Amino acid sequence: MKDTWNIYNWGKSLADNRFRLLGHLLLLFLILFLGFQNINGNFNRDGFLYAFVASTLVFALPIYLSIYWLVPRFLNRHQLIHYWILFFVIILLSVLLGLAFLYPLHQHYGSHEFCLQDGRSFSFLSFMHSILILMLIASGCTSFELFRRWIVSGRKIMELEKATKQTELQQLKNQINPHFLFNMLNNANILVKEDAVEASQILEKLDDLLRYQFNDSARKEVFLKADIQFLVDYLELEKVRRDHFEYQVTTEGELDEVCVPPLLFIPFVENAVKHNPDSNNLSYVHLYFTVRDNELLFRCENSKPPVPAVKKEGGIGLVNIRRRLDLLYGPKYVLQIEDKETTYNVNLHLNL
């Protein structure tokens, strides 16, 4: 897996625009080297330059045509039959053109008989040997170009998915924030009318909440303790507003260095508060945060009134909450809901 990742990173470097010129130069150097190697020792000094140019063109023609014409025109469009037919035709024409140029040159400037490496005279076997060698070289260069294009395409897809994910996540977070703010302002409005002292307390808490809302929540991550303090302020605000309400926040484990996305838990706590408005009996919300073995366990338990609260339209909804968790954590979370007769429990497991 590590080797695969190193290859991928190496491919990303080659796919970068800064390395495009270097890639062209390396390909040109390879073609010049093959052209030189093909005629090295077969021509005298007078005919070497002509033979070198002809030999280089023999290799350049199929390589460049395959990379810059056949691949985008046929292979990328999944026209494999057309691609392979034209590829073979180009290879065949390149070999024939090479023979048409090199054979006469060798007759005038050759240092020895035009033959194969094993000493046999030019024949049908040598012709097939040339086709096979040129096919392998052109196929290798084409394969490298396909790998580069795959890396570029994969990077574009990843960047598009990342941009889409960030946009969608921001929309979901914006959908949560105004909803929560509306509830807080409504609570403050009620208390201002009933009790000036309590109104002052709630406005102070609201100031802290809004400060967190517009400052810390704009960050990608916040410390878990800061998000817990935000929940405490919210619950304290609710306790001031309601006569028969109590809350409890329990933490366990090392929370100091743990970071989480902002406003991750408030939808659960807000729903817990909203759906147990029992003015005659004690209602409660209990929160539990446990960090162990690189996992964060969050539990929200709230009481349920004897008469269920009327559900209002326009709430955040469990679907949006799950969607945000999917975007943030992918498969690295487990969300369980337990709707019992007298309690409603939310259990969230996150891999840190």
Descriptive account of the structure:
With 352 residues, the protein is α+β, with helices and mostly antiparallel strands. It folds into 2 domains: 2-159, no CATH class; 201-351, 2-Layer Sandwich (Heat Shock Protein 90). The chain has 9 helices and 7 strands, in the order H-H-H-H-H-H-E-H-E-E-H-E-E-H-E-E. It has helices spanning 2-15, 20-39, 45-75, 80-109, 124-194, 196-214, 224-241, 266-274, 317-329; strands spanning 222-223, 245-252, 259-260, 283-292, 295-303, 333-339, 343-351. The strands form 2 sheets. The chain has a 5-stranded mixed β-sheet, with helices on one face. Strands 1-3 form a two-stranded antiparallel sheet. Strand 6 (333-339) and strand 7 form a beta hairpin. Helix 1 (2-15) crosses helix 5 (124-194), helix 2 (20-39) crosses helix 3 and helix 4 crosses helix 5. The longest helix has 71 residues, at 124-194. The radius of gyration is 36 Å and the shape is rod-shaped. The two termini are 22 Å apart.
Quick overview:
64% of the residues lie in helices and 13% in strands.
Number of helices: 9
Helix amount: 55-70%
Rg for CA atoms: 36 Å
* SSE run: HHHHHHEHEEHEEHEE
Largest sheet: 5 strands, mixed
Low-confidence region ranges: 1-8, 114-121
- Cα shape: rod-shaped
> For the largest beta sheet, what order do the strands appear in spatially?
2-4-5-7-6
Fill in the keyword field for this structure.
about 350 residues, alpha+beta, Heat Shock Protein 90, 5-stranded mixed sheet, 7 strands, rod-shaped, disordered N terminus
